[in-house]
Amino acid sequence: MTPSPNGSAAGRSPGAPVPSPTRPVPGLRDFYEDPTVPVASGEARSLRQARMLADALGPAVPGSPAATVLDVGCGDGSAAATAARVLNGHRIVGVDWSQDALRRAAPRLSQVVRGELTGGGLPFASGSADAVLFSEVVEHLVDPDSALDELHRVLRPGGHLMLSTPNLAAWYNRGLLLAGVQPVFSEVSLRRIHGRPGSQVVGHLRLYTARALREFVAASGFEVVTVAGAPFHGVPRPLRPLDRLACRLPSLASILLVHARKV
Q1: Which of 4, 16, 17, 213 has a beta carbon 3.0–4.6 Å from 208's, enabling a disulfide?
Q2: Chain center to CA of 41
Q3: Distance between CA atoms of residues 263 and 241, nearest Å
Q4: What is the pLDDT of residue 14?
Q5: EC number(s) in its UniProt entry (predicted)?
Q6: Which residues are CB-neighbours of 192 under 8 A, at least 6 positions away?
Q7: CA distance 215 to 213
Q8: What strands, in cross-sheet order, belong to the sheet with 68-72?
Q9: Which pLDDT belongs to residue 20?
Q10: Which domain covers residue 50, as residue numbers?
Q11: Is residue 233 domain-resident?
């Protein structure tokens, strides 16, 4: 039976009873405004990413304008606060569309701004940012192509994009797939976890391997400078040394860290 455009079933006889409407299922916006949904990145990978950016920007020079760094999808501000420790003298602006996230980020950052990657776009002029932190965001997006287009727009020529995301091909996911188990980081429902280890739903819609991520970023108008690996705080403690070792080969690491420049 084919659903009609208004959602009812086509072919129902005129006199048949109409079922009562069900309660609408919460959308993605409702999901991310839920204060119980995690909005923080792990400190270890946030620090690695910040150090990569600090190396790219160099130290702030007295008498010269500070670099403007946008933390797009800042969540609770913890990643930007970690970055601030190694980006002394540079200006960090937290950006998120979730009002709940911005309330949590405000005590940690000197400036927070509400902005979206879709619709009207980010509230910044083209070429106004020296760098963008994009930590654990791309995996949550319905339209990642438009998102990277918008980040490309706000960056100055040669500006830096620091993107991090879980690795679909992490060392343990390869073993899980061979055993017929749903990979870690992947989710088939916004209500609960099915078929894989873990219990926390965080709203992942897309996952990347190192090769796919490199190609995707390059196709969006960026030159990929480097791809590095970072550990995942959710790995069981006995396996964490192995997880840190896997970071030496980014294609096996839990988290992918990409440094790219606008061309």
Answers
A1: 213
A2: 9
A3: 37
A4: 40
A5: 2.1.1.222, 2.1.1.64
A6: 199, 201
A7: 5
A8: 112-114, 91-96, 68-72, 129-135, 155-166, 255-262, 222-230
A9: 42
A10: 38-167+208-262
A11: yes
